């Protein structure tokens, strides 16, 4: 650990756990004794350890505690069609920056959505979190709902699950299901863990079903839920913990 266990001014580890709502002070002490708590990657079993919650990283049962949510800013944004997924645009088109004007912090957008796709974008002030969420190593799943031209044939799911070849390499979906069919429009849910440009649109066109409308409804453990287009919400609590846990932070 970076701090001496008896550094003056530190906070006792069991008190930090109790204040974070993990368990009572007595139960937190038992968790430490049982080796379920680590600080900066080192398992702690001593009751006298003092830590600095502002600078040290604490895990319980492998799950990171977010002790100061004011420092860890993650925003869920429902990007409208016609808005670009960058902080500025030389052509003067609406950009993500227009939706987060109330946040003075420097925020990184996590991946992108093309201008014709709406739905969930994540922004954060944590560069390492942003990097990991987009790194292929962590295979973070993205969920999309697409409206397609035509009635989807039964064999399409098998084809996409087995994989198809695109101009930039092979791709297969993590899951595919038909949500609804109305007239000549079929609504489907598609889950992929890659982040190539216009990937879902190109996949569906390749199997003969051009996308009419596309919305991203999920990014890892974060869902769009009832967030209205053009608005944002802070990701907090268990959702924020799950997001960090998904990439091993």
Question: Your description of this structure?
Answer:
The protein has helices spanning 13-19, 25-33, 127-134, 155-162, 199-206, 237-246; strands spanning 11-12, 37-39, 42-43, 50-51, 58-60, 63-64, 74-79, 108-110, 118-124, 142-149, 164-166, 169-171, 175-182, 185-192, 211-219, 222-223, 232-234. Strand 15 (211-219) and strand 16 (222-223) form a beta hairpin. The chain is an alpha+beta fold.
Assess the beta-strand content as a share of residues.
25-35%
Nearest-integer average pLDDT: 87
Distance between the termini: 16 Å
Low-confidence stretches: 1-7
Biggest sheet, open or closed, and with what strands and sense?
9 strands, mixed
How are helices and strands ordered from N to C?
A: EHHEEEEEEEEHEHEEEEHEEEH
Helix content: 10-25%
Provide the structure class.
alpha+beta
Q: Choose one word for the global shape.
A: elongated
Radius of gyration: 22 Å
Got a strand count?
Answer: 17
